[in-house]
Design goal:
Helix content is 37%, strand content 29%. It contains 11 helices and 14 strands. It has 2 domains: 2-218, P-loop containing nucleotide triphosphate hydrolases (Rossmann fold, 3-Layer(aba) Sandwich); 222-289, Alpha-Beta Plaits. The chain is elongated and about 80 Å long. It binds adenosine-5'-triphosphate (ATP) and magnesium ion. Magnesium ion binds at residues 40-41, 81, 155. Residues 40-41, 81, 155 line the site of magnesium ion.
Length: 312
């Protein structure tokens, strides 16, 4: 369980996070999204006890991250943006060393178990310096899991990995996230969509939106978008569709392809289909287009920026 209440962090006169409040429950993977400089890493550093907030509170498994940081560190596993790995140590020795730092009883068992979890058993005796980026990322994940923490905080866990490794690391996260609370930051919206139960988007230190991936997609579009493929010219059709009642926009995209929008709840597809046929055009295809999460994200963060700009 992670609970954040009115958390604010200032660096000098710069406000990195601004009055953030959110929660993540056990068994939940919460995606933390936002553009560069949004405040994701700052929030994570506060949650893991690496630095104090300027104001507000945060608890991990019920322990205050400032007042009870020792208890917090026992219960949280942290994969930082860049993991400080010792390249001249073997994977096993490094994890053993990290276990000893944490004063874990049965350190060797803990290491063996964790190696298994992240799929590194056959690399245990290899030097970290010789590992690929994806394998190093797994070592980072392993050190975060050694002490079986209730809460996992993963700062861009798949950054810089190739597609195959991304899938493998995601599988590990899904697996280890089942009974924990996971806060995961990413720039990849499809990743959040695949992995997360809920998504929190922040921009300039403020929460812009918080919802399930499914709801995010549908609730933010504000319009139904439909693409229409016909044989031949579209200019005439565009003209006719634009005159229909309830059509918000219509435009030709390329030869034979056009797109129109209407308000949700006022489905104009049948009328448009009739019109196409009455115009003696051949209707080849009609399909709804959902706004991609990327588009939603840009829309949200752009609107925010514009709002902020207006206030200045
Ligand atoms: N130690 C620091 N001292 C001064 N400013 C800082 C410090 N750490 C972060 N900041 C500032 O706080 C803001 C938030 O940074 P943060 O690293 O949390 O963003 P982020 O969302 O993790 O971005 P990215 O996606 O690039 O990793 C930025 O404006 C950054 O310059
Ligand atoms: Mg960051």
């Amino acid at each position: 369980m992670i609970r954040v209440e009115e958390l604010t962090k200032n660096f000098g006169s710069r406000r990195a996070i601004d009055n953030l409040s959110f929660e993540a429950r056990q068994g939940e993977i919460l995606g933390f999204l936002g553009p560069n400089g949004a405040g994701k890493t700052t929030t994570m550093r506060i949650l893991t006890g690496y630095m104090p907030p300027s104001s507000g509170t945060a608890t991990i498994a019920g322990y205050d991250v400032v007042a009870d940081s020792l208890n917090v560190r026992k219960r949280v596993g942290y994969l930082p943006e860049t993991v400080p790995l010792y390249t001249d140590m073997t994977v096993f020795d490094y994890l053993k060393f990290m276990s000893d730092l944490r004063h874990l009883p049965n350190a060797e068992d803990a290491v063996a178990e964790t190696l298994e979890q992240v799929g590194l058993i056959d690399r245990a005796e290899g030097y970290i310096g010789n590992l690929s980026k994806g394998m190093r990322q797994r070592v980072g994940l392993a050190q975060a899991l050694l002490h079986k923490p209730e809460v996992l905080i993963l700062d861009e866990p798949t950054i810089g990995l190739d597609p195959a490794q991304i899938i493998e690391v995601r599988n590990v996260i899904r697996e280890v996230g089942q009974e924990r609370t996971v806060l995961l930051s990413t720039h990849i919206l499809s990743e959040a969509q695949q992995l997360c139960d809920r998504i929190l988007i922040i921009n300039k230190g403020k929460i812009v939106v918080e919802d399930t991936p499914e709801n995010l997609q549908s609730r933010l579009t504000g319009a139904e978008r439909v693409q229409l493929r016909v044989r031949g010219e579209t200019a005439d059709l565009v003209q006719k569709i634009s005159q229909m009642k309830g059509i918000q926009t219509v435009q030709g995209i390329s030869e034979g392809l056009l797109e129109f929008q209407f308000a949700p709840g006022n489905d104009l597809r049948p009328e448009v289909a009739r019109l196409v046929i009455q115009s003696n055009s051949d209707l080849l295809e009609m399909r709804s287009i959902n706004l991609s999460l990327e588009e939603i994200f840009l829309q949200l963060t752009r609107d925010e920026a514009e709002l902020a700009g207006e206030g200045e």
